[in-house]
Amino acid sequence: MKLKKMMVITAACSMALSITACGASGNGNNGGNTAATNAPAENTGTDNAGTNSGNAVTSEGVVPEEGATLIVWESKEERAFTEEIAKQFTEKYNVPVKIEELAPPDQVTKLTQDGPSGLAADVVVIPHDNLGKAASASLLLPNDLFAEETKTRNTEASIIGASYEGELYGYPRAAETVALFYNKSLVKEAPKSFDDVLAFSKTFTDKSKNRYGIMWEVGNMYFNYPFIAANGGYLFGDNGTNKDDIGLASEGAIKSLQTFVKLKEVLPIKSGDINPDIKRSLFNSGDVAMDINGPWELGAYKEALGENLGIAPIPTIDGKTSITFSGIKIYGVNSYTQYPNAAKMYADFATTKEAQLLLNKTIGSVPTNKEALEDPQIKSDPYVSAFAQQATNSQPMPSIPEMGNVWSPVNAALPEIWDNNADPKAAMEKAVQQIKDLNNGASQ
What we know:
The protein is α/β, with parallel strands linked by helices. The protein is built from 20 helices and 14 strands. The strands form four sheets. Strands 3, 4, 7, 13 and 14 form a five-stranded mixed beta sheet that branches. α2 links the parallel β1 (70-74) and β2 (97-101). α1 packs antiparallel against α18 and α19 packs antiparallel against α20 (424-443).
């Protein structure tokens, strides 16, 4: 059974309509706070508020633990925001914050390894599709002290994304989907279809000059979901909850992948030769005219291209609307932290209206905070509006633990198709079987 349209409308539109009504691996260090024991920290609330005399008290009466220090994992691309927020938090609460670079998609895996030994960060940043894996493994503390504020302040879609099996774990900080970035000095009008993309790129691409009409991470399922879903392909059935119903090799998915195959003609390079740094450099220099990317790249692209930067929805495939993944980026608090109060306070502090507006200003993110979405900074931004338009045609990534079993098989199948001319149906059927094997192994 395919992902139902109602789920798309409920989750994606709740993010996008809030806006209109008004997203590489990184390297992290193993260092961290050493836990007093290898057991998860207890959920401490206002009962121990009086034990930290001299520290500022929040409106809820929560104070950081005596001598608290925090480690936060953050992506390279968004570090500038975290440096500023950490500085503000330290100034207000006298709690030092150390930042370690680690890409959000890698953080739950590293938390699984380093959490029990006390080497993980106190506060992590994860895409919501990783939440089920982390919560089911008891790696995260529930968002209890600030639950009501979090639910009141943020969009319904972001609260859904920050929850697992009815319990709120995360602190939403940004809504994400991908859109088409383009250089207006090269592409006068945003292409409506991938046929238009092909036509333009045939006149622009010149491999000898390292110049391409379009470039995106062709080996990464996140950016390639339109080439699966436009004609009815899907990931998990029953609204993303049925691990045994996988639609990646369905008739609709294979039909959409034919467009993926056609685009190799105008992007004649290996999948491994495309990464965010290479693509960013080529787009900024005018050697790539179009890029499928997320709002985390907006700040750098605006700085490089200025008024020549355009953003539009993903072009259609076979006359069908391109369906992208949507996701919520959330903070989570490590259940093994020595300083649960301080960590929860930081996660709350870094997701307020003011913090989300700072994140938007720094890197171009789309807020989840409802008041931030009403702010003129957001309402007057044509780039945020473009992401909002694409969000209405997005599907939220499943958050069941088995979602973690999808990435490696599909991210192996796509390069096989792109680099080695593998038959799309055979490659995706192999990926589906690998996912099922992983799912069944995980459930035994």
